[in-house]
């Protein structure tokens, strides 16, 4: 399986322009035969808690996201994009997941970072995704620091762990260490998809990364440019491409 993590520089609150950026990166992933691509936390809006209410969607079939489903169907690729999702319980930090010729799913961040409770509610995680008999678990940012989260993913049979994050320059090294330890402990491939640039008042660190099952860092993007990093789990080959 070829799995791809994207690194973007978000345009604050501009969903349509961010969609176009996403499509350019997805095109690179497809040209390299990727089976799956995951984007950073709240990738379509940027990490902007104060704007989340006005930017949220309440319907998984929202027309603004239709292009992702079309691309998924035509190219047999799973696509995960971040956006605030509103239910009767409140707004969650969510990832909408598009699977070829299948219903859309939403993964909602269950473990919130301190301060996020003012804007968001805790959501429900979905079981690991299955693609070509591979089981892939998703985590959103702070969830990587909750041991129970990775343990549950492992117990549910996942052997690939993908973190969709906003990591600042100050916090990224801690998360890199944690995800490396998770990969080693559970014998999983692990990926981290992060922003570059600025979002939510943070200077984002980039360094979108991939670890092998021994927890060794096998590939990492730079700190400033948009691009993708792909791992082929059959050969362990890494591909890095920038816009």
Content-based structural category:
alpha/beta
Order of helices and strands: EHEHHEEEEEHEHEEEEEEE
Contiguous low-pLDDT stretches (5 residues minimum) are none
Strand order of the largest sheet: 5-4-3-2-1-14-15
In DSSP terms, counting alpha (H) and pi (I) runs of 4 or more, how many helices? 5
Characterize the largest beta sheet: strand count, sense, and whether it forms a barrel.
7 strands, mixed
Report the β-strand fraction as a percent range.
25-35%
Give the overall pLDDT as a whole number: 97
Distance between the termini: 23 Å
Share of helix among residues?
A: 10-25%
Q: Rg to the nearest angstrom?
A: 16 Å
- Number of strand segments: 15
General form: globular
Description:
The structure is a single chain. The mean pLDDT is 97. The longest helix is centred in the first third of the chain and has 17 residues, at 15-31. 23% of the residues lie in helices and 30% in strands. The chain has helices at 15-31, 52-55, 66-75, 147-155, 172-186; strands at residues 2-7, 36-38, 78-87, 90-98, 105-108, 129-131, 134-140, 160-164, 189-193, 198-199, 202-203, 209-211, 217-220, 227-232, 238-242. With 243 residues, the protein is an alpha/beta fold. The two termini are 23 Å apart. It is globular and about 45 Å long. It is built from 5 helices and 15 strands. It has a 7-stranded mixed β-sheet.
């Amino acid at each position: 399986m070829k799995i791809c993590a994207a690194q973007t520089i978000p345009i604050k609150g501009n969903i349509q322009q961010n969609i176009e950026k996403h499509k350019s990166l997805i095109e690179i992933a497809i040209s390299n035969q990727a089976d799956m691509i995951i984007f950073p936390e709240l990738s379509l809006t940027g990490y902007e808690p104060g704007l989340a209410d006005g930017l949220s969607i309440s319907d998984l079939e929202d027309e603004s996201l239709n292009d992702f489903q079309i691309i998924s169907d035509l190219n047999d690729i799973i696509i995960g994009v971040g956006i605030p999702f509103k239910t009767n319980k409140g707004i969650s930090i969510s990832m909408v997941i598009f699977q070829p010729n299948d219903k859309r799913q939403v993964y909602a961040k269950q473990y919130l970072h301190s301060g996020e409770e003012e804007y968001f509610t805790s959501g429900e995680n979905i079981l690991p995704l299955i693609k070509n008999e591979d089981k892939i678990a998703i985590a959103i940012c702070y969830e990587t620091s909750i041991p129970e989260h990775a343990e549950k993913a492992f117990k549910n049979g996942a052997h690939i762990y993908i973190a969709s994050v906003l990591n600042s320059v100050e916090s990224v090294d801690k998360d890199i260490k944690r995800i490396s330890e998770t990969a080693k402990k559970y014998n999983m491939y692990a990926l981290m998809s992060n922003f570059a640039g600025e979002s939510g008042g943070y200077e984002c660190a980039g360094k979108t990364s991939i670890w092998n099952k021994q927890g060794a860092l096998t590939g990492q993007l730079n700190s400033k440019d948009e691009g993708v990093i792909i791992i082929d789990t059959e050969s362990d080959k890494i591909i890095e491409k920038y816009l």
